[in-house]
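User: I'm curious what two different proteins look like when written out as structure tokens. Can you demonstrate?

Assistant: Sure. I'll show them one after the other, since each token string lines up with its own sequence. Here's the first protein:
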Amino acid sequence: MEFTSKIIEQAVDAFAKLPGVGKKTSLRYVLSVIKGDEQQAKALSDIILKLKTDLRFCKKCFNICESEFCEICLNPSRNETIICVVQDYRDVLAIENTGLYKGHYHVLGGLINPIEGIGPSQLNIESLVNKISTNNVSEVILALNTTMEGETTSFFVFRKLAPYSVKLTAIARGIAVGDEIEYTDEVTLGRSIANRVPFDSLLKK
């Protein structure tokens, strides 16, 4: 793709670095910014910068938030004895949208993936173990993707938490093997959480 402007070329290249954005889609974004007024462009620039300067990870569950602790962890009506383990912020949103889960979360920040060089030490797994060992947690729900990486991570977490007297469950398999939590419809996801099963029962199949 040849450009008549270096600035447009650089902007297209910048947008195209985003996941799932090709050069043609990126060019549409750039042209939309050009057609808009200067105030719109400045607002877009400011909010993008805030994503890097004003956001942080919750000190308790590693959810993305604007303060030291996220709103879920600070909500006294949530059941802090139940922890749902998820991959990232997208899964927290997906589960929250079902309106059926009232416990806390623990965001791992990814999945074990040796091909991409992601090992257990790069995820928030040890902090989960510490949380279980020092807090009054009755149940840990493993709500990770049913992909190979998700299954590997679930099993690793299961092994790490096995020595502790905590109930380990997994979301029911209403979610097809290979599916990702964030793309599952709310009804199916809600039922999968409500009908969760002991994790070790899945190992016997």
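Here's a second, unrelated protein for contrast:
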Amino acid sequence: MIKGDRVYLRAINVDDIDSIARCFQNEEIMYMTGTRNVLTKEQIKEAIKRFSEDSSRYDFAICLTDNDQVIGDLAIMEVDVDNRKAMFRIALHSIVECGRGYGSEAVQLAQKFTFEELNLNRLELQVYSHNSRAIKSYEKVGFKKEGVLRQALFMNNTFSDEIIMSMLCEEYMNKNSKGPI
């Protein structure tokens, strides 16, 4: 478990299926993440099992510290130990939880795990240009824009750019030199 003030991360498990399934019932979340395929609970269960057997990834449930409610999930994936880098993704399961700082705190906990526990040098993510709330959140916690794949997504009758962002260990350490999260 990786504990913050308002949220904590724990290994994702099959008990989290109902919360994850909520993502696929919300059109705004689907659009923000560029998700087209709705997964059934059985498919989610199979994915959790498959992910748990994949040594190149770490999947976490995002839970509230005050009541243990699962509000989202995140993954550090494609861990490349040789090059000391990984990919990152996060999803809050309900729009109600957005804009409260839970996602930012969860991302900071994922950064802590990536740079302090896994000893990686680079954490990379992709976000769509129409998801301005996520972009602001990533920038707030230290991610930097480094590239744009122009008009990489066509959804809801419009094109969106795919923005590549990353954070390096040195940037994380400088940002957190005042002490732990």
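A detail about the second structure: The helical segments are 17-23, 27-33, 41-52, 102-117, 132-140, 169-175.
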